[in-house]
Design goal:
This protein has about 325 residues and is an alpha/beta fold. The protein is built from 9 helices and 15 strands. It has a 9-stranded mixed beta sheet with strand order 14-13-12-11-7-10-9-8-15. Helix 1 crosses helix 8, helix 4 packs parallel to helix 5 and helix 5 packs antiparallel against helix 9.
Length: about 325
Amino acid sequence: MADKVRWGVLGTAKIALTKVIPAMQQSPWCEIAAIASRDFGKADETAERLEIPKAYGSYEELLADDSIEAIYNPLPNHLHVLWTSKAAEAHKHVLCEKPIAMNTKEARTLIEVRDRTGVRIQEAFMVRTHPQWLATRELIHSGKIGALRSITGFFSFFNDDPTNIRNQPDFGGGALMDIGCYPISMSRFIYDAEPRRVLSMLERDATGTDTLTTAVLDFPNGHSTFTCSTRLAPYQRMIFHGSEGRIEVLIPFNAPNDQPTQILLNDETIEFPICDQYEIQGTLFSRAIRENRAQELPLEDAISNMKVIDAVFRSATTNQWEELE
């Protein structure tokens, strides 16, 4: 029996309640021991429904609980750095939802906090440890499709609710921050490199929120293009084009936890057994804590991804190629 890491959750975000908490509760390495909300009634109701032992009526109370070892932070984007830093100062390890910050400058402050407090901080890109992505990376790096030269990605859904935080720019809403970060991260992961420059186009609604973004990432060994939108029919796909073949990841980001996933290697279907990418994420981060070994995604990777996001925003304003900071 593993010595479970005792986790606390900041807030009652939908992703936490429907995806992350139920998955981590299935992990032999994770114990969801407490949840906090600024509304105690909401925290208490959630704790009872999800069978979480403790409920707190403020984030500060949760961070003051010495029995909690790690924090999952699914708060709105503009609160990521603030409460990740507060958790680290309280000597808690932190798994923070993506994107980890509002911009690169803000993200970099977490390096100093991590180094000074000695805790682990990781961005919650659950896709990076899903078996279908590990296999895709291995197949490409082993030359199964020849030289990788081009990546195409697409991720969209429809949400025009002005009260939703994804449509509020001050909270870090918008297509690029919410879902465009995925094809950026996976392009960097598969190329195992950083883009040299980016070129983008971006449309905003009346609130100033970006609703349609298309970008080209210029890598040393090839290109990656992607489109993301919060005003299109739901769809997602990533395709990797090589000199001798292609790989398609059919459900690249919202991989189901109740059915197998599939990728296409040219015309061959490769299937992966049912798994929960959120459980894998929680397990691996908890094991890194318990076994004192390197976490799967270093904090520096989150900052590198943020640099690309910033460059995409800049390019849409300047209408020219933008190098990474």
